[in-house]
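Support request from a user on the community tier.

User writes: "When I paste my structure tokens into the form, the page sometimes reloads and wipes my input. The last time it worked, I copied everything first. Here is what I submitted, just in case something in the input itself triggers the reload:"
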């Protein structure tokens, strides 16, 4: 049975945000199942998973849009479950920027402060600081329709930052951007959040986005946190086959382990604490490919695609199934042609992950 992960970090200081055993049901459907998570001061934690895994539901519970059926949500040690949305020390940046088209950039950013009844002079000063923070001071008098997608997103962020939230919640904020701008904004937003020292929860289904943005990633599955760890650990040491399959590209083989070793498909072996039937995972970049048939793991190149400086080969192996291999692209004419018989070998057996049989 799949057990929930104890996702609380060993924090040196009390967490800014603490989620304890949160459960949320909609009728007979359990969308969140005993989720627990601590977030440190200035930390960016990403909730990552496919549609329907519960990540947006958890964010909405933190924001106060939905009340959990069980569990606790505290900010700086104070219980927020019964605190109204407008009184929670959180700010939310949504998928759609929801800017008022009839208001200027400055008035959009000032809107929340006006609703709080702040004095005009104080509003003007805070709006100016917020626009300077997101490098939009020269656009204060423009309207949303006069801005690019990236600029509109920065206005949405400034509108939240001006409220000085204790926790920043970002619900797939890059969805409306094209791929190139999306990549640039990921870097810019992470740098901005870290410079300001904001504690943030980021929601996405995009693994590359999560790897770029996060100090830690919580991979979610069916309403539970499957693994919580820094991006490098999530990628290099996925705790389960599900995480390995979801993060990056993976190749899986069925094998057998005994005596502290597991047999690998290319004839090598690797250390393993498991015994009996197992599943082995090998990343495409941990495989070498060469023309010829001089090893136990061989087949034919069925497809290849250039990905910038890399080539991804799909090899139909003699044992059945397709193996993906990632290799550096050489100068024109040096790639291995489709149909070529090749041998594959594992570069570093110690980087292979071993799981229960799938």
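"...and here is what came back when it finally went through:"
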């Amino acid at each position: 049975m799949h057990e929930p992960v104890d996702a609380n970090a060993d924090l040196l200081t009390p967490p800014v945000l603490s989620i304890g055993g949160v459960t949320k049901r909609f009728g007979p459907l359990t969308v969140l199942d005993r989720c627990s998570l601590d977030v440190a001061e200035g930390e960016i934690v990403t909730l990552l998973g496919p549609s329907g895994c519960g990540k947006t539901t958890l964010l909405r519970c933190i924001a106060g849009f939905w009340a959990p059926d069980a569990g606790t949500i505290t900010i700086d040690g104070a219980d927020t479950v019964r605190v109204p949305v407008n009184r929670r020390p959180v700010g939310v940046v949504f998928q759609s920027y929801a800017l008022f088209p009839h208001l200027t950039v400055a008035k959009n950013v000032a809107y929340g402060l006006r609703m709080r009844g702040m004095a005009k002079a104080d509003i003007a000063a805070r709006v100016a600081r917020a626009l300077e923070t997101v490098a939009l001071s020269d656009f204060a008098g423009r309207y949303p329709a006069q801005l690019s997608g990236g600029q509109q997103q920065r206005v949405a962020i400034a509108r939240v930052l001006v409220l000085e939230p204790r926790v920043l919640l970002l619900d797939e904020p890059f969805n409306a951007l094209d791929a190139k701008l999306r990549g640039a904004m990921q870097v810019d937003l992470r740098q901005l959040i870290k410079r300001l020292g904001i504690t943030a929860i980021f929601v996405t289904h995009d693994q590359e986005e999560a790897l770029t943005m996060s100090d830690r990633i919580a991979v979610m599955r069916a309403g539970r946190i499957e693994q919580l760890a820094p991006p490098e650990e999530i990628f290099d040491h996925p705790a389960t086959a599900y995480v390995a399959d979801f993060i990056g590209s993976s190749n899986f083989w069925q094998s057998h382990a005994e005596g502290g070793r597991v047999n690998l498909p290319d004839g090598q072996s690797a250390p393993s604490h498991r015994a009996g039937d197992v599943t082995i995972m090998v990343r495409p970049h941990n495989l070498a490919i060469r023309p010829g048939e001089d090893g136990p793991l061989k087949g034919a190149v069925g497809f290849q695609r250039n990905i910038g400086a890399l080539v991804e080969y799909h090899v139909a192996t003699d044992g059945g199934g397709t193996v993906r291999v990632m290799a550096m692209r050489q100068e024109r004419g040096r790639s291995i042609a489709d149909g070529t018989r090749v041998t594959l070998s594992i570069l570093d057996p110690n980087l292979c992950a071993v799981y229960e049989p799938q």
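Agent notes: The reload is a front-end session timeout and is unrelated to the input. The mean pLDDT is 91. DSSP finds eight helices and 20 strands in the chain. Escalated to web team.
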